[in-house]
Amino acid sequence: MQITGYAFLWHQVRCMAAVLFMVGRKQETPDIVRTMLDITATPRKPQYAMASEEPLLLYESGFEDIDWQHDAGICHHMLWLVIEYVADQIQRLTDSYDQQLHHHLITAALLHSMRHYCDTLQIKQTSNVDEYIPYKELNMSSRKPKHIPLLQRKLESMCPVSNDIFRIDCYRYV
């Protein structure tokens, strides 16, 4: 998913991703996006958990219609300094990514092994000692929290109300 814009509100991308994940899981229909962007139909944000920040990455920012002023000699020297610095940083990042990848691969292998073990568990159903059934055959769907459609949830406070609450709480501790 790639999101492009001129400016973003605090946590806006995480909120957008959360709604799109709900659509992807078929908990919401795709038209919820258009409905939530319509401020007459949805004047305030429904309450829901934001998406995790971990997979979200700002990888580019830019400026349009700016005429940068520069001195060619200084720029040439600075360019080489920047290239050396960037090369060093890339090596450090690569080393860090390799370490993290190694750690996550080991963690994933352990989780996979544990998950496989859980599939082999047997659950005692009755007082009869010999009567066990595989865990996978239990109906656990009733224990999952039921999804409440976004448009049926409580709404967030209006901005002025939230700002007043924040302001009061900030001054309370000063």
Describe the structure.
Strands 1-2 form a two-stranded antiparallel ribbon. It has 4 helices and 2 strands. With 174 residues, it is mainly alpha-helical. The two termini are 42 Å apart.
Throw out a few tags for this protein.
about 170 residues, two-stranded antiparallel ribbon, 4 helices, 2 strands
Note the topology.
Blueprint: H1 12-24, H2 31-37, H3 72-120, E1 122-124, E2 132-134, H4 159-172
Antiparallel strand pairs: 1-2
Summarize the structure in short.
The protein is mainly alpha-helical. It contains 4 helices and 2 strands; from the N terminus they run αααββα. Strands 1-2 form a two-stranded antiparallel sheet.
Distance between the termini: 42 Å
Give the strand content: under 5%
Global structural class: mainly alpha
Helix content: 40-55%
Q: Measured on Cα atoms, how large is the radius of gyration?
A: 26 Å
User: What are the low-pLDDT stretches, counting only 5+ consecutive residues below 50?
Assistant: none
Outline, from the CA principal axes? flat
